[in-house]
Amino acid sequence: MKKIILLIEDEKDIVELIAFNLEVEGYKVLKAYEGYEGLEMAKKERPNLIILDLMLPGIQGLEICKMIRSNSITATIPIIILTAKSDPLDKILGLEIGADDYMTKPFHVRELIARVRAALRRMDFSPLEAPVKLFSYKGLSIDYGSYTIIVDGNRVDLGPTEIKLLFLFAQNHGRVYSRDQLLHRIWGDETFVEPRTVDVHISRLRKAIERDKENPDYILTVRGIGYKLNDMK
């Protein structure tokens, strides 16, 4: 079955360029030219991935990103932001709000397709390779088979990258990973990913599962080295 890509973009020439190239690659493309239309389409069609512009009529892309992440139906759909906003602070904000990747215009369509493939690969990983199917630690529980994460009795919805990070930490409880090691294990050969991206996704993971993000119980920083899942008994 074809993977479905939802394209939320108001510039029709860009929409047609991206849609044509994605369809050549075998994807089915849905098109929305303004924010509210895109939100409704995301909830109804549940695409495999969303490509989202930030500057849209009706509602801005960052708000759309927040709403997609806060809705249980769409929370785990990968989002690639594609925008003319090139300020590094805009990129960090986009990633912190919930995007999985961030590209600036003008862009090379082959690079966009490479990033689409990479984001979809991160969704396709199998947690069943874990030696156990369940993990439990101080109020945090993980069911690797159903991708269910519970914190203090409440279900938590994570994006695909945060799920992979949490599973990696849980399956190697107490092991410290450097940023470079995390880049290799989670993003693989995606050379366009910056080390700063790791910090942003760790921040998003902490925001979702920690009782106090500034004083984490689970995902700890090992100064000068990297991150680990707390191994204190």
Structure description:
The chain has 233 residues and is α/β, with parallel strands linked by helices. It folds into 2 domains: 4-123, 3-Layer(aba) Sandwich (Rossmann fold); 127-229, Winged helix-like DNA-binding domain superfamily/Winged helix DNA-binding domain (Arc Repressor Mutant, subunit A), CATH 1.10.10. The protein contains 8 helices and 12 strands. The chain has helices at 12-24, 35-45, 61-70, 88-97, 109-123, 160-171, 179-187, 195-209, and strands at 4-8, 28-32, 49-52, 79-83, 101-104, 134-137, 140-143, 148-151, 154-156, 177-178, 219-222, 226-229. The protein has a 5-stranded parallel β-sheet with strand order 2-1-3-4-5, sandwiched between helices. Strands 6-7-8-9 form a 4-stranded antiparallel β-sheet, covered by helices on one side. The protein is globular, with a radius of gyration of 18 Å. The protein starts with a strand and ends with a strand. The model has no long low-confidence stretch (mean pLDDT 87).
Strand content: 15-25%
* CATH architecture designation of the largest domain: 3-Layer(aba) Sandwich
Low-confidence stretches: none
Structural class category: alpha/beta
The main β sheet shows up as: 5 strands, parallel
Spatial separation of the terminal alpha carbons: 46 Å
> Major sheet: order of its strands?
2-1-3-4-5
The run of helices and strands is EHEHEHEHEHEEEEHEHHEE
Determine Rg (CA atoms, Å): 18 Å
Q: Which range best describes the helical content: under 10%, 10-25%, 25-40%, 40-55%, 55-70% or over 70%?
A: 40-55%
The number of domains = 2
CATH homologous superfamily assignment of the largest domain: Response regulator
CATH level 1 class label of the largest domain: Alpha Beta
Q: Do you know the CATH topology of the largest domain?
A: Rossmann fold
